[in-house]
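Feature request disguised as a bug report, sorry. It would help if multi-protein outputs had a clear separator. Right now it looks like this:
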Amino acid sequence: MGRGLSGRAAEALAAKLGFAATVVAGDGALPDRPFAFAVASPGIAASHPWMAQCRQRGINVVSELQFGVEECRRQGMKLLAVTGSKGKSSVVKAVADALEASGRRAIACGNFGKPVCEVALECPAEWAVVEVSSFQMETTALAPDAFEAAVVLNLQEDHLDRHGSVAAYHALKTSLLSMACRGLDPQGCEAIASGCAPLFAGSYFDNPVLRANGAAAVWLMRTAGLDDASIAGAFARFEPLPHRMNIVSTFGGVKCIDDSKATSLAALAAGVTMAGSSILLIAGGLAKGDDPKSVIPPLTGRVKKVYLIGRCAEVFFDAWSNAVNCEVCGEMERAVESAMRDAASGDTVLLSPGTASFDQFQSFEQRGDVFAELIKKEGQKKK
C-alpha cells in the first residue's frame, strides 16, 4: 500500500518471491478479491482507512521494513538497527562507512539510503545498517533476533501530528529494542559516551550535543567486530551528511550554517546549542504539533534575532517574541536578506527550521539548497 520508493521495492521483492503483487496508491480502494497479506509503506499511517479495511477483513499488515528485513535474514545478511529523534542518518552512515573500510561489505538502508526491500532484492552486502523511523514501526513486529544489535539514540518530542502523543511516539521507538539480540537505549548511550569519546575526538560527533550518538556508533561498530584502531580511523575520515550543521559560506566574519535537516523543535534546540552564540536564526515551516515554547531556554542568550518563515511563522512569533527578538518574514528570500543585512562580524546566520519543509519546499534538502544559494547571492552584494 503506497507507491513511493519503498512501495516499488516491496512490489519487486514480492514478485521475486513468487507473489502476485498489486500496488495500491493514492486514495483508491483496496482490491475486493482476497489477498494473503499487505505491505505498508511508511507514508500509510495506522489511522488510514486502508488499515481499518485490512483489520476488518482479517488481513495481516506488515511494514516494508519488516518484509525486507525478514528476507535479508533468510539470505544470511546481518543487520544493525538505529532509531531515535535526532542523528539517525549520521550514525547509520558512520557505521556503514566503517564496516566498508574494514573490508566488510555493508550498506546503509531503511529510512536513509535504499529501502530494505531493495537491499533484500539485490543482496549486495554482508551487513545492512538500517535506519528505522517511528512511521515504519507502526506496522513492524519482528522476531527478537531480527537485528544483531539495535540502538535508540535519543527520545525527544516529534511527529505528534502523526502519533498523537509523546508517549505513543516514544513507545514506537523503544519497541525496536525487543527485536534485537542486543540493545542500547538513550541512557545507555549517555552512560558510555565519556569512555568512547577518545575514538571520535575531533570528528563531527565530538561535541556535547552529538557525543552520545558517537558513542552509539562506537558500540555498534564494536558489536560488528571492529577494533578500536579501525573505529578511530573511520571517525577521522567521516564526512557529515549535507544539511546538518554544514558551513555553507563565511562573509566578513559572518558564518552561515545550513541545518535544514532540523525538522523538529528538539533538533532546532540542538542546532542552536551547537552554533554557540550571537546567532541570527531562520526558523519556521510546517509545524509538527510540538510545543514551540519548549525551545525558549536554548534561544534565550544565544539567539540575537529570529527570522520566521513558512506556515507557522505567526505561531512561533506569538510563542517566542516575549523572549527573543523576532521578525515575521514569510519567505526564505526575505529572511536571508534581513539576516544578512543585520549580521555583523562574529555573528552566525543559522538555518535550523524546527519544522517540516513541505509548506514551501519539496524537501528539507531543497530548503537547504535554496538557503545556500540565497546566502551566496547576498554575499556577492557585500563584496
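(second protein starts here, but nothing in the output says so)
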Amino acid sequence: MTEKIKVLIVDDEVRFVQNVSRLLDNGRFDVSVAHNGLDALEVMHKTRPDVVVLDIRMPEMDGIETLLAMKNLDAETSVIILTGHADVETGILAIREGAFDYLFKPCDMDLLREKILQAAATRQIQRCPVLWPRRMVKEITNASFIPLDITDDLTKALEIFNATGSWGMREELHVTDNRDRLRGVISRNGLIREAERVYPERNILWSDLVKNPWWLPGKKVSDVMEPPADISAHPDEPLHQVAQKMINHHIRCLPVIADNRFMGIIRLNDILFHISTAHENRKLGHEDA
C-alpha cells in the first residue's frame, strides 16, 4: 500500500479549509488543518507533514512568519503559499525563504491538488546557485512551451495538457496561427465544458476526460478558444515590472510577444525566484557578470 501524503492546510477561512480537505479526501492524502500560524506549528510538531498549504494573511502570525518557523522546524517540508492580497515583495520574500510555489486566491482546486502532488514528489525545491543576474523577460522566457495551432483538434490540446514535462501542470494553452501570432487561449475547464455539452448528464472531472478523450467533440481549437488577455510581456521588459503587472491582474503565466509574434511564456514563480536570487547576490557581494 502506498504511503499517504501528509498535508497540512493552514488558513483562517474555515470554508476554504473544508473545501480543500474534501478535495484531498480520496485515500491518497492524510490531511491536518489549522486556522492560524501558532496552531499550525503545534500540528506540525505532531504530524510532520510532507506539504503545507499556507495562507499569507492570518491572525497572530502571518504566513511569512509561519513559513520561517516551519522551515526552522523542518527545512524539507514543502510549503505552498496562498494569497488573496498579492504583492511583488511578499512573493519574492516567500520564494527566497523556501516556498515551493506562490498561488493566488481564489485558487482552482485541480491546480492546487497538482501543486500538492508536485511538492510532495519534490519534497524540497532544488536551487542551483545563479551568480549572475537575470533582469529582463527575454532571459527567462520559456520558448519551448508548446503552443497550439488554430487548426488542431481538441484531442491535441488534451495531449499537450497531459505532456507536463519539466514545467509541471499547464494552466492554459496558447493558440497561434501559421505566422506565430497569438490568437487565443484554451483552458482545462474549457475542454471539460465541451465534453459536458456532448454528455450533459455527466459531471465530468479532468481525470475522467483524460481517461476518455473520445468524449471531446470533433471540433477545432479555433472553435472553442477564448480571446487572449489584453496584456503580455515584451522580451526587453524588466522582470520586476512584469511581476507587478502579473500580480495586479492575478496572472501566473503571461505570453511574451515581440513584433506581434508569440515568443513563449514567462511564469510569475520564475520571475520571483530570479529577483530573489539577484537580491541574495547583492547581499553576498557578487558582482554582475
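Even a blank line would do. Unrelated, but nice: Residues 268-284 form the longest helix (17 residues).
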